[in-house]
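Handout, section 4.2: multi-component inputs.
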Amino acid sequence: MAKVLMKGNEAMALAAIYAGCEAFYGYPITPQNELPEYLSKHMALHGKAFVQSESEVAAINMVYGAAGAGARVMTSSSSPGIALKQEGITYIAGAELPAVIINVMRGGPGLGGIQPSQGDYKQITRGGGNGDYYLYSLAPESLQEAVDLIKESFDIADYFRNPVMIAVDGLIGQMMEPVDFDREVPKWDLLPKTWAADGNPQGREKNIINSLYLDPLVLEQHNLKLKAKYDEMRKNHQRYELINMKDADIVIVAYGSVARIARTAVEMLTEKGVKCGILKPITIFPYPDQAFAELPDSVRNLLVVEMSTGQMLDDVKIANEGKLPIHFYGRVGGVVPEAEEIVQAVLKIVGGENNG
Amino acid sequence: MDNVKTIYKKSEGLSDFNLSYCPGCTHGIIHKLVAETLVELDVLDRSIGISSVGCSALNYDFFSCDMVQAAHGRAPAVATGIKRVKPNTIIFTYQGDGDLASIGIAEAIHAAHRSENITIVFVNNAIYGMTGGQMAPTTLIGQKTTTSQGGRDAHIHGLPLRISEMMATIPGATYIERVSVHNPQHVQKAKKALKKAFTIQKENKGFTLIEFISTCPVNWGLTPKDAIDWAVENMIPYYPLGVYKDKTVGEES
Ligand SMILES: Cc1ncc(C[n+]2csc(CCOP(=O)(O)OP(=O)(O)O)c2C)c(N)n1
Ligand code: SF4
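Output:
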């Protein structure tokens, strides 16, 4: 298939259909509405389930039910709705069910605004709900990357039996770009879902989907089993991109839309003779600390750029192990940093023509 | 041995686990009725039950079909999620009054509103059993609980919610009945109600809810016998038994 021009939210919806998504449950919220709107029509055309639920709380619990029955299932929302979904998300992680959750982030706290933001970073990367669990969290910078990652995310969720969070911001949801839906994505080795409570017990014991363990020793073992899964993600499934790293003097650390804006900033800086690279986390959980170990010796400074007041800084500090000075530039409230602002922030650190 | 006949045995809809309920609690009878109904309608091997949060939270171990444990109040949403991807299954939720009438009222109403083809087994014991006897939306006026120690007062706590009456007003609901299990006659009636509800589901005719007047001798501070009497004398007058909605009336049978 040739590339098609699509709006981000619709492209992400179609990617889910390509991935074999069998059910979508969600509740309207800006700036992700085109995603459920698209699916309300197209899931039915493909003979799949779509329900506009009464709330995000209900939506995520519908996801829990369908995932427990062995179906490939997705929900999407934006920040306040994701906050409301945390109860269901911890149950899904606790019961070890696969599901895909898209968060098209907007400014907060509270009702906040409807413009792009990365203000949910901590909520996404620390689990978000109660208890010891994490979400495998992917943060694409373009529609093509979002489509590729969503297509793969259903496999990842099935493989780990854990929810996968697709963390994008309103910019990606709303932009239009040409996308190729037929690009190959990695296929994971998947086992049949023999654990599913699908009401079809032919030749097997009954199945139970559950996150309740009243015996502390048993619950401890369950937690350790989950931990082993997260350790495996940390050890072998970090994803990142190192961009323009040759002889880099300074490195911008940025993910999602901001990484993309940083690419433009790096082009502008190159013209000014500044050697600037980009470290782009693709997984924000597991955080790609391995990328920091690969930075060339030429690097003298790190500049973290985010659409938040610095939520990723803690992870950068841990990954940097105190080696390099860390600087920060952020815009919040739905304000998207421009490439020129990032250029100025870099020049301020490395000392350039506009420094002062 | 000759002349020995099995005239009664535990339903194969129940597992070999010992029920965790207090002596005299009517949760046990309700489990038996649900299990027998699934077997008699020949749907046990395609049934999925949804356990809720309350004294019945552990009943995923008690029924012998596939089971899913749901968050507090969310069982009808979980049921919806399953039924939409597995339309040939028979789905029931088993929920207490705290679970359904309080924290989960939105999920219950909207499952009915969407005419989800599921059956809710709603157990009204007028109290929060599992957490130690707090007031529920269904606690009666004057009834003492750990959070209404002077007795429920309409001015402070509002009047008890009548769930069957309320759910019957929802256009999407197909069948709503309130039953009791305080004596063998009513146990038989309750079983008939369950059979009706699950038959409606089997025939894809929509949302059904059977409300059970149930007891909580422990948190009511009564013996099992007195608890039964208390339910008959106090609950049934406020929560009259009967069919509150039946969209199948007039259909050929
Ligand atoms: C979100 C959440 N809030 C509160 C609780 C604590 N909790 C457990 S059971 C229960 C009440 C259950 O009462 P009811 O539904 O009437 O069932 P019963 O125990 O009487 O059978 C509560 C509040 C919980 N588990 N989860
Ligand atoms: S606490 Fe009450 S409702 Fe719970 S098992 Fe005991 S008697 Fe039954």
